[in-house]
Design a protein that fits this description.
Phosphorylase Kinase, domain 1; AGP_Transferase; 29 helices; 15 strands; globular; Protein kinase-like domain; about 55% helix; coiled coil; transferase
Length: about 750
């Protein structure tokens, strides 16, 4: 069985949801005056182009950062102001992350021809922040189309060699810039000389962002001088993730929590053993080179007409690393990233499909190396004639730092020996377990997996028990968060329900609901279930808007009961509720519940049905917010995969709950709207995501492909799974179909 899709590392759902809340509160707080302040700030730092003007629509959101675009009255190139997003970027190391990126941009601009944007200003210290009170980089705005999107659009074949040769030239240039250790670059302000500070990797950032109370007191205070010191640090961080991430071993059918914990423990133990293999051992004698796991087409722009790469950006997690990392081939030239393939169980398919793409890239690199070799020979001949022996040796070392093997050859060897996947595990703790079981588990010395020592087995059993306790701790925290967020969602609905009650027809519908309930339960039970339950909540509203009281009382009530309560609310009380519980809780509720996409699309279908394409519907706002939440890719991830969207397939037909005949008095226009909805639903693609896709980071940088193309058998099985889920909901859909407004449907969905 392919277990890779069950072993993706899920970061703490509560932390991610709270971070998303923090980000949304910050985003909601940005007003027009903030943009004016930023315009003045940019004008003060770029003094030769006239007043700066914020470009309408000029906001770009990445996984961790937001970029604002500004133009100038007197012309000149546009400027980008980049800052970390509160809640989506680890606050304790945000300033360090920004400073590192600015330093690497300046370093690349000085030492290479890679087209990185020019940095005009960078502020990370108190008193030197942007008007948003955040660290910032002020740099050139990068023109062009996103290269990853361009490659996915099937560009003209004649442009591919041009594009690949440019990317290859970037790798070659970085390959030839040596460092004396491991870390991030920093320039001495007095001498202008470059040196190394401690490294900050994407894994380090992710651990702080996604693991509750993650310890950083043992992080290095300076750079590493050898590969062994850095490797020991990586082992330590992966071990801390294994033992501190509360929901790491959440059950995922067909595996139990104990099964997953056992697989993870064994994978980490044996992955570390592989570091002693000759093919995978890190050496100091090859030196150190700049390495960035995000140096790929999604962080580049291109001129679509010529294929010229115009910009390279997002260098915040670049570090000088053991040179072996720089000898690995790029893994991001295909429409699906390896992390996505691991998350979905299609890694074997990825290996097969990626090989010809990689060969085309390495052929382009080889052609470039041949051209450079001719130029090098001419330069060597000139130096030999001049007997400049010292310069001659320096040139040889610069051009061939690993002996005579060209970089393209070294990269082919890395792919062949699977060293690239061992290094992938070192640099991607999110997928170290999955990559071990997918590729590396049969690569032990002699091809034999050694028996686990007795003491290791004892330690593994102890870890399994600890993992179960951690999962329970996380679930308790998540339940508490969900209760609060569910209360916020229902109270948001309640504030709209109060307005809905003002409509006589809605009042009649509500009365009809209670009369039907009364007939089913009897008047005494109705009084007990509704009136008595409502009383404490009504008292809470009348007394004051208090978070704990609201959350306690509202969780006991259904949406209809809350709507019934709202009849007695004054407009002032409704406004108080609106202020206290913000619309962002709609998204938080959906995220924290970790609803699978198939279920989420069912939610959208029903909300869409009750909205009836009516922009004035009080539930339209809820639907729009929920739909936006389901599609957003600019936030950190919350559920079980740090990576992104899976393949899509189309589901024909529509659920029974969306098909009905017009009621008496219903307009033909409404009937037509429902018919349009039917057509739209038949075309609706169901994204088979395993989580709410908050990306990281990553979420925004991955792209769906056709599931049918990936695996037609699995596509069919996923359709069958969806229909099985739908049939299981039939008891619920009967009630939903009979509803005339959105309240009963939302009640069913929110229970």
């Amino acid at each position: 069985m392919d277990q890779t899709e069950l072993l993706t590392v899920p970061y703490d759902a509560v932390l991610y949801a709270e971070g998303s809340d923090q980000y949304r509160d910050w985003d909601d707080s940005l007003k027009e005056e903030h943009m004016h302040a930023l315009e003045e700030f940019v004008t003060a730092h770029i003094t030769d182009r006239g007043p700066a003007r914020f470009v309408q629509g000029g906001i770009s959101n990445g996984s961790y950062n937001r970029v604002f675009r500004f133009s100038f009255d007197d012309g000149g190139s546009d400027i980008a102001l980049k800052s970390p997003k509160p809640g989506h970027s680890a606050g304790t190391i945000a300033a360090e992350k920004v400073a590192n990126e600015a330093a690497w941009l300046e370093f690349f601009k000085e030492k290479t021809t890679i087209p990185v944007p020019r940095v005009y200003s960078c502020g990370t210290e108190p008193g030197h922040l942007s008007p948003l009170k955040l660290p910032y980089i002020l740099m050139d705005w990068v023109l062009g189309d996103n290269l990853r999107d361009f490659l996915r659009s099937a560009p003209p074949e004649k442009l591919l060699p041009t594009i690949y040769q440019q990317i290859a030239s970037f790798y070659l240039e970085l390959y030839r810039v040596p460092f004396n250790g491991i870390g991030s670059v920093v320039r001495n302000k007095t001498t202008g000389q470059w040196s190394l500070r401690r490294p900050l990797t994407i894994d380090m950032h992710q651990l702080v962002l996604g693991v509750s109370n993650y310890p950083t007191n043992d992080w290095p205070t300076r750079g590493f001088t050898n590969a062994k010191g850095y490797l020991d640090f990586v082992w330590d961080q992966q071990s801390k993730q294994l033992r501190n991430l509360r929901n790491l071993n959440t059950p995922c059918e067909p595996l139990s929590s104990e099964d997953i914990a056992r697989l993870r423990f064994e994978a980490r133990y044996r992955f570390k053993q592989l570091s002693n293999s000759p093919e995978f051992r890190l050496h100091d004698n090859f030196g150190f080179r700049a390495f960035n796991p995000d140096l790929d087409p999604r962080n580049m722009t291109v001129d679509p007409d010529t294929g010229k790469i115009l910009g390279v950006f997002d260098l915040e997690f670049t570090n000088a690393m053991p040179a072996q990392f720089a000898c690995d081939p790029p893994l991001s030239l295909f429409t699906v990233l390896p992390a996505t393939a691991l998350d979905t169980g299609y890694f074997a398919w990825f290996l097969q499909e990626y090989k010809p793409v990689l060969d085309q890239f390495l052929d382009a690199m080889q052609e470039l190396e041949k051209l450079e070799e001719l130029e090098e020979l001419e330069e060597l001949d000139e130096l030999e004639e001049l007997e400049e022996l010292e310069e001659l040796e320096e040139l040889k070392l610069k051009k061939k730092p690993f002996g005579q093997a060209p970089l393209s050859t070294v990269m082919r060897n890395s792919w062949k020996t699977k060293r690239v996947w061992f290094n992938f595990g070192l640099n991607h703790s999110d997928h170290v377990d999955a990559i071990y079981w997918a590729v590396l588990h049969d690569l032990h010395l002699g091809g034999i997996t050694p028996e686990l020592p007795a003491e290791v087995k004892v330690e593994m059993e102890s870890y399994i028990q600890q993992a179960k306790a951690k999962v329970a701790e996380h679930n308790d925290a998540l339940d508490s968060y969900v209760r609060n967020e569910r209360a916020g969602l229902i109270l948001l609905l309640l504030s709209d329900a109060a307005k809905l009650i003002n409509d006589l027809q809605s009042q009649l519908r509500l009365v009809t609901y209670f009369e039907r309930t009364k007939a089913q339960l009897g008047p005494r039970q109705l009084e007990s279930n509704v009136l008595n339950k409502c009383a404490p909540f009504i008292r809470a509203v009348n007394d004051s808007v208090n978070s704990d009281t609201f959350c306690s009382e509202v969780s006991k009530l259904s949406l209809q009961e809350l709507a019934f309560c709202s009849i007695s609310f004054s407009e002032r009380q409704v406004q108080m509720i609106r202020q206290f519980f913000k619309a962002s809780h709609v998204r938080a509720y959906i995220k924290s519940q970790q609803i699978l996409v198939t279920d989420r699309e069912e939610v959208f279908r029903r909300l869409d049905f009750y909205c009836k394409e009516d922009e004035k519907s009080p539930f339209r706002k809820i639907y729009d917010a929920a739909r936006h939440a389901g599609k957003s890719t600019d936030a950190p991830r919350v559920a079980t995969t740090p990576s992104t969207k899976l393949p899509t397939t189309e589901l024909t037909g529509s659920p029974a709950c969306c098909a009905r005949t017009p009621a008496n008095g219903e307009s033909t226009q409404s009937t037509a709207s429902l018919a349009n909805l039917e057509n739209r639903k038949r075309k609706l693609s169901i994204t088979l995501d395993q989580s709410m896709a908050l990306s990281n980071d990553k979420g925004a940088k991955n792209h769906p492909v056709s599931l049918q193309q990936l695996h037609p058998v699995k596509a069919k099985s996923m359709k069958d799974q969806y229909h099985e889920k739908y049939l299981a909901h039939q008891g619920m859909t009967t009630e939903v179909t009979n509803a005339r407004d959105g309240s009963e449907a939302l009640l069913t969905l929110c229970k």
